[in-house]
Amino acid sequence: MQQPPKQKLSPEQLKVVTQKHTETLLDSLKKEESDNIKKVLKYKILTATSPLNKVGLNALHTLASNQVNSEDQNKVEMHQNCLASLQDYGLDINSMDYFGRNALHFAASVGNLVCLSALLNTDGCQVNAQSIGGETALMKAIQHGNVPVVQLLLQHGASANPNYVTSTGLNTQHFATQSANQDIQSYIAQVLEYEQASQQLEGMEKPMSQ
User: Fold this and answer.
1) Which residues of 108-139 are buried (b: 16+ CB within 10 A; e: fewer)?
2) Are 3 and 43 in contact (CB under 8 A)?
3) What totals of helices (H) and strands (E) does the chain contain, helices first?
4) What is the pLDDT of the chain when averaged over all its residues?
5) For the chain, which end, N or C, has fewer CB atoms within 10 Å of the first or last residue's CB respectively?
6) Is 59 exposed, middle or buried (CB count within 10 Å of its CB: 0-12, 13-18, 19+)?
């Protein structure tokens, strides 16, 4: 990796160095090499939230997009080390790409339970954040038929509320209905029934408390 010289860089030099650092960082994130990730970021040419491609994916988005075997402890530790390596370099768990997607969207899409668990257990994680198209991480998990991801998201506050609607008018129930996974269809139906019952109960209790 080309290291930046100590003197002030010209715009053209900065462009070249930034490109080199971007290529190295992307490769290190793909290979989950935490030491190399730190080496790149310590020069402060890039941060954990710097866009690394044309759609604005940053280091966390890229890492969240990796598929990690949660039963392989070595892989789990490598992934956790990479997540930890971003902590000191401007990590923002709710940062979005140019389409409004955050790390939860990417992790939910590929079934990255290790990353999802780490994000969901971090204070301030916006579990119901919607992309520009209106999709939530729960919708992505349902769309990809991943039951463990759906369950994990719901356990950490993800909502199946039909008021969360995409730009094409689809809500969580629509995604579940379209899913070929019957377990997801049944599970979401139960969740929706529970949420609706809870809302009705709250509505009945309010007049009594006034």
Assistant:
1) bbbbbbbbbbbbbeeeebebebbbeebbbbbb
2) yes
3) 10, 0
4) 93
5) C
6) buried
Architecture of domain 12-202: Alpha Horseshoe (1.25)
Tell me which amino acid residue 128 is: N
**Could you tell me which residues come within 8 angstroms of residue 140 by beta carbon, excluding any fewer than 6 positions away?**
105, 108, 109
Q: Are 192 and 160 in contact (CB under 8 A)?
A: yes
At residue 8, the pLDDT reads: 82
Q: What burial class does residue 201 get, using C-beta atoms within 10 Å of its C-beta: 0-12 exposed, 13-18 middle, 19+ buried?
A: exposed
- The predicted-structure confidence for 16-56, as pLDDT tens digits, reads as follows 999 999 999 999 999 999 999 999 999 999 999 999 999 99
- H-type alpha helices, 10-122: 11-31, 34-41, 59-64, 73-85, 103-110, 113-120
- Reference 137, options 124, 200, 73, 151; nearest CA is 151
Q: Which residue type is seen at 71?
A: E
Tens-digit pLDDT profile for residues 103-149: 999 999 999 999 999 999 999 999 999 999 999 999 999 999 999 99
The one-letter code for the residue type at 74 is N
